[in-house]
Design a protein that fits this description.
By secondary structure, the protein is mainly alpha-helical. Helix content is 57%, strand content 0%.
């Protein structure tokens, strides 16, 4: 290609100095285009977090400040700017709690389609279980138990946000199998992403069952 380039430039009625500048310019442009097909050099973790914290997954919306300090926040996805309206500690607490519940709910929903507890009240589909539990009174018991747990968690949340106790959102000091590996950001991010996926998965399963009325695999 460079031989063709040299011949083409030489055919033009230009001075020697101009021809030389044109060759250098075209060669530079070709080099820059070729570099676009090469992988960028790997930056350090700190450099990556710094660059990511200034960007958002939504191109036309700037990422709110302060998200980069949180696991998963370096991607800057907060198009409604909720983190600027509500304490981010409370938002992360709610997200982790709903994500954990959704992971258990997704697994439980699918399992209950195959495994039934003894008793006539349990011989229903996962989709019909809610109405059956309300009718039998079991849902009232669940509501009472969950209300007690939530009331206790309000104390921890209040101390975290108002009293600045240093407690991290979602930290109930309950990790008997040591899956959390202490304060490892990588594992925190895994829990966060799996929780988000489970919330979408459970919503999708329930919607699909309501539309089709079919059991697993729900189509």
């Amino acid at each position: 290609f460079f031989f063709f380039l040299e011949g083409s430039v030489d055919d033009l009625c230009l001075t020697a100095d101009t021809k030389k500048k044109m060759k250098v310019l075209v060669a530079s442009l070709l080099a820059s285009c070729a570099s676009a097909f090469l992988a960028p050099p790997l930056a350090s973790t700190q450099q990556q977090q710094t660059s990511l914290s200034a960007k958002s997954l939504v191109p036309w919306v700037e990422a709110p400040e302060g998200l980069g300090a949180w696991a998963g926040g370096e991607q800057g996805f907060d198009p409604l700017f909720l983190s600027t309206m509500v304490p981010i500690e409370w938002l992360r607490e709610a997200e982790l709690k709903h994500g954990r519940i959704a992971m258990l709910a997704t697994l439980g929903y699918i399992t209950a389609d195959f495994v039934k507890l003894p008793g006539d009240v349990h011989q229903v589909s996962s989709f019909a279980a809610h109405d059956a539990a309300v009718k039998s009174g079991a849902m009232t018991q669940i509501l009472i138990f969950i209300s007690i747990i939530e009331a206790c968690s309000f104390v921890a949340i209040k101390e975290m946000i108002v009293d600045k106790s240093g407690r991290k959102p979602g930290d109930y000091a309950f990790d008997p199998l040591k899956f959390g590996k202490g304060d490892d950001p990588e594992w925190q991010l895994k829990e966060l992403r799996n929780g988000r996926l489970a919330m979408l998965a459970f919503s999708g399963i329930v919607t699909q069952v309501a539309l089709t009325g079919k059991a697993f695999p729900y189509f």
